[in-house]
Amino acid sequence: MDARAVPTWLHAQIEYLRNNAPLPLKVENLRAGTRGGHVMDRFTLLVPCCLSNVKWEVVFNGLDAKVAPDIIFGVDDESFQPLANSSEFSPGSFLRDWTVTEPNSLLKLILVTRGSYLDYQRHRVEAVNDPRVKFEINTMSGLQGLEMCITTASDRSEEVNFAVPLVLEVEAPHLPGSHLPSSTLWNDISLQVKFPLQRGQTSAGPPQLKLVAPPAMREVFDVDDVRLPVWPGNICLVEYIPSLQQTLQQQVREARASIALRRSFMEALFPFFGRPLEADATYCRRISLLASSGAFTFLVHLALPIQFPKVQPTLTFQSSQHFDTRGRPLVSRTYMDYPWSPRWDAPQMAQRIMDFVADECIAFKKQCNDLLHHQR
Amino acid sequence: MMMLMMQGGMEHVELQPLQEPVLRYEMRGMGSPEDILLCVDADAEVNVEMKAGGGVKGLSRLDAVKQALVLFVHSKLLMHPQHRFSVATLSNNAVWHQQEFTNDMEVLIYCRSSVVPEVEVQLPGKQRLFTFDALYLHDKPTRDNCPQRVYDVLVDALERVSEFEGYIFESSSGSARVLFRHMCVLLSHPQQRCPQDEFDAPKDLAKMVAPVPRTSSSGGLPQLRKEGEDDGSGPRTF
């Protein structure tokens, strides 16, 4: 963002929102109001709702900081009328009292408008005249962080969506000498539930279920790998969640234990290979080693899967002395089939990897020499 | 030729001896993406021929260095696809061709035995994430050149500028294979480095003695023999 083209007061509002928003709000497409205009005073805002994003356009007047912004909602939300409510903490009151002397005005306005938007969506869901949806709503009021909305699918049919964060109890990471509690509550994983509507009615079968997690979690735990417990017969969401939580808790515990196992394996490589060139010390998914066999110097790249040690690391050799016709160093195939047992302790695993590398690097060197010979 | 590399760094990794006579390695630091500037010295001495051997054919110094850079870049990207690179050249002035970094990183390849560099580094304030390496190729010392002085200036610059462990190699043997090997050591991520004297890779796997039978619970750590090969590591006089 070129700050010179964005008015300073607006830049301050946007930066405050970016750095302090309690939810993942995203500012995109910051632009001027006219083609070739110099003042960039409008943008698209992605607002999370029910684990998806709705797009709002936020329009300021870059030449007058005293003028409150306009917000343009999506085409499907024409009946959303946040200004109809003029009570104290409504969007209307924030717009009426708009000022940029504090940098948090935009963020406060967006959060309170989002709150109104969620209420509007809730009323839409409550208005669905379907016994199952009504039953779900009646049983769910106690769920913390629940959101609901109606979305329109690509074929113009409607879906009722519920989204609820799952609270999991996991062991805290072991930090020597710390006095942190032994377990913490995780609520990064959410469950999204869709009930498609046909002519205003849900169907009899189970709803569509999806687990949603922040992308960074993939290094440790992939929610797409989770086999969701079967939705038995005529239960409601509130009854389904506890068994899902238990399944998830177990799998998350295993994934976190795997990090510790990966770490001790990587550390066990040191007496055999010396200091690694680079290691992913946070999630322990990758490590690269420098090795030699006589005059042949090469690198070994290891990738450790989330299911380590049940699934063994993959191994790739890379020469430091052989290059293809484009000058790139020669790299071996990925090895996934060398001797391995998850029951070995870390030093044994490291020993066996070293044995394999010491043997196989001779073959790799020969392959490289043969390849170069054919290149000439 | 000299290569100065600046990379990001946080904590040092320490070796902690335990009760057993085994050095235990604790991983620390983040191993996060780096921005690396490669700076090549394009001066007359770059045409000196390098020694062939170890499967590497004879190359001019400049070609060997270019190949070493390609090796470096590809290796770095295999380790972490988010590392980024840019290029500068050095003749009388340094010309930085693209400037797209958020962290300051510099690789300078220096190839002059007779011209002492003036290292003027202007950094905005003290950059927390900044490491500086050097790789210097030169002729053997004679009466008409001054590679020792050049080397000393480089060591001084490295110590002055580098917030974290910087590594320096020099070579007059002219072996491209050894150049590539030094380059591989410079791949080591600054956030996870130890002092250069303690860096002990690569180990020669061909010299590893077979350990005690694997049924033993100790895991059978190998006995290591010290490598006899001179790899030119660590600051010193020559």
Quick structural overview:
Chain A: Belongs to the BABAM2 family. The complex is a heterodimer of chains A (376) and B (238). In chain A, 31% of the residues lie in helices and 26% in strands.
Describe the largest sheet of chain A. Answer: 5 strands, antiparallel
What is the N-to-C succession of helices and strands of chain B?
EEEHEEEEHEHE
Radius of gyration of chain A from CA coordinates: 28 Å
Count of DSSP strands of chain B: 9
Give the distance, in angstroms, between the N- and C-terminal Cα atoms of chain A. 51 Å
- What coarse outline of chain A follows from CA principal-axis ratios? extended
Secondary structure category of chain A? alpha+beta
Rg over alpha carbons of chain B: 19 Å
Q: Let me know the average pLDDT of chain A.
A: 89
The tally of helices of chain B reads 3
Distance between the termini of chain B: 16 Å
Q: Roughly what percent helix of chain B?
A: 10-25%
Mean pLDDT of chain B: 66
- Which structural class do you get from the secondary structure elements of chain B? alpha/beta
Largest sheet of chain B, in brief, is: 6 strands, mixed
Provide a descriptive summary of the structure in words.
The complex is a heterodimer of chains A (376) and B (238). Chain A is of the alpha+beta class and 376 residues long. Chain A folds into three domains: 8-122, Ubiquitin Conjugating Enzyme (Roll); 128-260; 285-375, no CATH class. Helices cover 31% and strands 26% of the residues of chain A. In chain A, a hairpin with a 7-residue loop joins strand 1 and strand 2 (40-49). The radius of gyration of chain A is 28 Å and the shape is extended. The two termini of chain A are 51 Å apart. The mean pLDDT of chain A is 89. By secondary structure, chain B is an alpha/beta fold. Chain B contains three helices and nine strands, in the order βββαββββαβαβ. In chain B, the strands form two sheets. A six-stranded mixed beta sheet of chain B has the order 5-4-3-6-7-8, with helices on both faces. In chain B, strands 1-2 form a two-stranded antiparallel ribbon. Classes of the chains: A alpha+beta (376), B alpha/beta (238). At the A-B interface, helix 5, helix 6, strand 12, strand 13 and strand 14 of A face strand 2, helix 1, helix 3 and strand 9 of B. Strand 13 of chain A pairs parallel with strand 9 of chain B.
